[in-house]
Amino acid sequence: MMIENVVCPFCGCLCDDIAVEVEDNRITAVKKACASGRSLFVNVHTQAAKPTVDGEEVEWPQAIDAAVRILNDAANPLIYGLSSTASEAQRKAIALADLLGATIDSTSSVCHGPTTIGIQSQGEPTCTLGEVKHRADLLIFWGCNPAESHQRHFARYSALTRGKLTPGGRKDRTVVMVDVRPTLSSKRADVFLQVRPGYDFELLNALRALLKGQNLDVDQVGGVEVARLQDLVERMKSCRFGVIFFGMGVTQTGGKHLNVAELVALVAELNAYTRFTAMPMRGHGNVAGADCTLTWQTGYPFAVSFARGYPQYNPGEFTAVDVLARGEADAALIIASDPMAHFPRRAAQRLAQIPTIVLDPEMSLTAQAARVVLPTAIYGVSAAGTAYRMDNVPLPLKKIVESPRPTDEQVLDWMIERVKTCSA
Amino acid sequence: MATMAEFILITGRTAKQGAALHKGKDSSEYRQATGFVQMSREDRERLGVEEGRRVRLRTAFGEAELELREGDVPPGMLFVPLGPGANALIGADTEGTGMPDSKGLPVEVELR
């Protein structure tokens, strides 16, 4: 049976035109997906898997008991991950953090956390990907490489797609890339500005100065000739609808949130001339949903502590890398994320030292080091749910194969009920 | 006697790393997709090091041994895909943001 219009949950593009063929509860073909999305669908586990405690298989009630005992015994438990699970499960994770007085953080803190900090100071001139498709004639990709990390972005939403006001597709759009190195994406651009590493802020600041009509008494900024920056400013001012998509080349380099604030300030100022927007290239399938769900539940998008009985927000204090590297977290619940594979070594070493519980469809590196492993279904493949696209548009994820495994939402519900029973 | 050369390190996602994630972090596909460092041809020839050779990278925060591959990076820069090698090289200080410095780090390459 061919199932049409499946949403791929892999990255923030959430492509909703995937076709998946299912025979006898097995995925036999995947059409239209990129290599990463296809790999997600074809490698999905549909077989039953028992939870484990200290490496021994147990029944679910015993596993939930063990997990809740670890969390109840901890003075400063950390709940982390959330970006590859559905918003229904994110909501339960926040409720559990509230009950426990825990710190809760998502993978946002190590991708676009600085973006949130930057837009909290400047505002967010944004739009939907539909507006980009139909209207944008100037696309600037800054510090990102969609050809490798968001492989269908060009075809679905930006450079290559044909919209109502951009019927010529690629011919109707100018594509600019700003990056520290040539990439597969920059090779497809009309204009490539190669900035020296660490000079994004200076380049953005120079563009703002040129937009204000100021003269720069230098020939180049961050390795880019001022004449080329002036050319970019003219393109920005004269386009009908411009957008800057930006990635971790902006957020993970020196300056971090200050780079984003400068980028957003430039975009806001461009709106004196034309319609201009900015959008972070969100990585994981529902990382934008983690920000949205945490915000509507607590008022804050990431780095939230319930230790005082009410939500407090402070990046650098309540972000996962910091609470681990400082040795503050004494137990962790990791949901749909693999920090052992992606955190700096010092933070990962702390995670290996403390009792950890993992909810994940995969036997990740974090799961391999965990005390309690709770194997769950995968949203968008063997469980239905909601995920938010990189433009914060929520989309329904389908269940396309049956799985005997519970969902993250179900398991978190069991944990919440057990915590309530323990404290009653 | 080891030869040291100084570079700027950039870490980041690649298409192969993204696809290999779902094969499992213990899979050979994942190890191959993450266990290398890219260097420009100019730097590789200047240092007289062959592609495929294992080199040791060292930052103020840690070290990793990776396979050297020639890549389209500017001279003076090294690129390492996200993964265990990159994690060993980046620090845990987030300067109050939650975000480690994952790009633009000074790094030394040791050639034995």
Structural features, described:
The complex is a heterodimer of chains A (424) and B (112). Helices cover 37% and strands 21% of the residues of chain A. With 424 residues, chain A is of the alpha/beta class. A nine-stranded mixed β-sheet of chain A has the order 5-4-19-18-17-6-7-15-16. A five-stranded parallel β-sheet of chain A has the order 10-9-8-13-14. Chain A has a three-stranded antiparallel β-sheet with strand order 1-2-3. In chain A, helix 2 (60-73) crosses helix 17 (408-423) and helix 4 (113-122) crosses helix 11. Chain A starts with a strand and ends with a helix. Chain B has a single domain (3-111), classed as Barwin-like endoglucanases. Helix content of chain B is 23%, strand content 37%. Chain B has helices at 15-20, 28-34, 41-47, 84-89, and strands spanning 3-12, 36-39, 54-58, 63-70, 77-81, 103-111. In chain B, a hairpin with a 4-residue loop joins strand 3 (54-58) and strand 4. The relative contact order of chain B is 0.31. The interface between A and B is large, with 62 and 42 residues.
Over all CA atoms, what is the radius of gyration of chain B? 14 Å
Number of helices of chain A: 17
Determine Rg of chain A (CA atoms, Å): 22 Å
Structural class by sheet pairing and helices of chain A: alpha/beta
Largest interface: A-B, 62 and 42 residues
Helix content of chain A: 25-40%
Please state the average pLDDT score of chain B.
Answer: 90
Strand and helix order of chain B: EHHEHEEEHE
